Amino acid sequence: xxxxxxxxxxxxxxxxxxxxxxxxxxxxxxxxxxxxxxxxxxxxxxxxxxxxxxxxxxxxxxxxxxxxxxxxxxxxxxxxxxxxxxxxxxxxxxxxxxxxxxxxxxxxxxxxxxxxxxxxxxxxxxxxxxxxxxxxxxxxxxxxxxxxxxxxxxxxxxxxxxxxxxxxxxxxxxxxxxxxxxxxxxxxxxxxxxxxxxxxxxxxxxxxxxxxxxxxxxxxxxxxxxxxxxxxxxxxxxxxxxxxxxxxxxxxxxxxxxxxxxxxxxxxxxxxxxxxxxxxxxxxxxxxxxxxxxxxxxxxxxxxxxxxxxxxxxxxxxxxxxxxxxxxxxxxxxxxxxxxxxxxxxxxxxxxxxxxxxxxx
Length: 361
Description:
about 350 residues, alpha+beta, FAD/NAD(P)-binding domain, D-Amino Acid Oxidase, Chain A, domain 2, 2 domains, 8-stranded mixed sheet
């Protein structure tokens, strides 16, 4: 089966989904491809900062997302020896220190405002296997497998919004520079105890960052930094002494941790790295978000940078600019801001322990 569209966007994450909306709103025909059978199944960040919030509000999408469920963080606390010694509250004009938005809520909120456009379609369970290139070296479409059927999508522009392991980037032979940060991350989720306030809590264990993020639905997400590459050896050790460190820092979580984190298998390991590409695309093809500049979880910048990428790229695209679009215009618009964010992440990682040097007595 063959499809035709002005734009083919690969990856229905936050960046790809927002870009689909913005381009469809401009009257372009858009096909959005997602390799998973349902939206929101891939691992992605879930915290909006002021930049991401502003992008959604500027395009009248925030209310639709909020109606599905969000949670504003009311304070940031630093803990040691089982108690908070430093508390940061938001600026009154901002009203939060970040907003938890479940990925499914974000994507659904945007798509429900997009699906009424007759020239937009979203194909799930559709995995791109090959790029189509013409005799002049311009990319003109993709070959994909949809529910086991081979399909072809022809378009004037292909957008690779398919994440840190981007198929589109690999198929286009665009080189990536990866940077390790000296740590990996263990994720876990537990129900919040009664009366737990929406907050971000930080602690230092073995000179490594431990973070708690309150989530929509009465949960707490735990992010535990460990030495890079250490998990295979770590899981050979006894589990109880390791998890006891969490309960000692946050005694009010002792019961829920004991009930819901019982073994190493209750953690999800994230291979932490950042990356960047010197080339953000080529003739007929553009990359955005993690596909072109992967970020670490530090500071929750990745989601918001992808939304800003989509916002900026959409401003450059219309029916007249598609065929002759110069990807360097987009790269020049965003590259410096991305470099600054990556530098900020490194600084935050290197200075995190300093927050615990002068503890309250």
